[in-house]
Amino acid sequence: MRYRLKLDEPLADGVRRIGIGQIERAVGMLASEDRDTGIHEARKCFKRMRALLDMIRPVLKPKVYKRENRRFRDLGRALSGARDVHVMRQTLDKLAEQRDLGAAGEVPSALRVWLDAKRARIVPIDGDAAMRQAQRVLAEAREAFADLPVKGDSFAPLAAGVRTVYAGGRKIMNQAYRRGDDEIFHEWRKHVQRHWRQLQLVRNAWPEAITPRIALASDLSDLIGEDHDLSVLIEFVRQNRAILGARDAVDALIEAAQARQADLRNAAFVRGRRLYALPPRALEEALMAYWETAPEVVKAQADIEPLAQGGKVVNIAR
Predict the structure, then answer these.
(1) Range list of H helices, 147-206
(2) Which residues contact 2 (CB under 8 A, 6 or more apart)?
(3) 257 contacts 233 by C-beta, under 8 angstroms
(4) CA–CA distances in Å: residue 234 to residues 16, 17, 63
(5) pLDDT for 239-272, tens place per residue?
(6) Of all residues in the chain, what percent are helix, strand and coil, respectively (each to 5)?
(7) Do residues 51 and 193 lie in contact, with contact meaning Cβ atoms separated by under 8 Å?
(8) φ and ψ at 84, to 5 degrees?
(9) Topology given in CATH for the domain delimited by 11-302
(10) How far is it, in rounded angstroms, from Cα 313 to Cα 305?
(11) Which of 91, 5, 17, 78 is nearest to 43 (CA)?
């Protein structure tokens, strides 16, 4: 199931179709033989579900929104343990490619050994039980989403849902660069990801206008995501520095990670300013206009294309 609303489909039907499709995809991913990839892909499904829920929040009863949002939030958290250690290992390897870690001595090697051992302990103990529980919760979620009570068939509340997430991200970006706090940057990434995914949902309103915005938000999310991965690695190294090696070597690793963070945040600032250039209300009004005119535009294009092949000039304003 494509993660995209259709112009010729009642909105309530589209919401249920997309939701059930993501739930079924997550079930399939959790059954994958490649556990790391399966968990990673399933957690992306949960994030898509939460972005969808945020967009349709205005047409859901508050208790329904809270229940479903909590369900997918908890699913993601339950599967985060082994994945987090795996990401930390990847982050360290990537940093070694980007920065000269010579001053860190044997600390990177010691850290790799420690992370590999930690991951080996997590997977057999916590992984299997968490996967079985996730499958049970997803079965309940599918049943709930099949009967999800979505009120009305107007696009206006959904555009308002997009505006709310966008406005929150715009505000948090300013806070992040004013305070420089790792956790605020992480919160900003969540808003960017939700905005990016909500744009995917409404892309059919005007693909030529929305697709570049999706690409910009996705690129920005990747930058802030790498920044967060580095902040997690830095904190882990600080907490375990006594077992990793000499003080100067540990400090050198931390400084290399912080230097990479500075580069990422500079690049993210440029993209963030572009993404959040529009006032929230202006974005909402633009999406409304795109969606409302889309059926007429699609019909006009269908009329033009067969005739254009014959070299005729067509008046579409008939």
Answers:
(1) 156-179, 182-201
(2) 18, 21
(3) yes
(4) 41, 41, 38
(5) 998 889 899 999 999 999 999 999 999 999 999 9
(6) 85, 0, 15
(7) yes
(8) -60, -40
(9) CHAD domain (1.40.20)
(10) 11
(11) 78
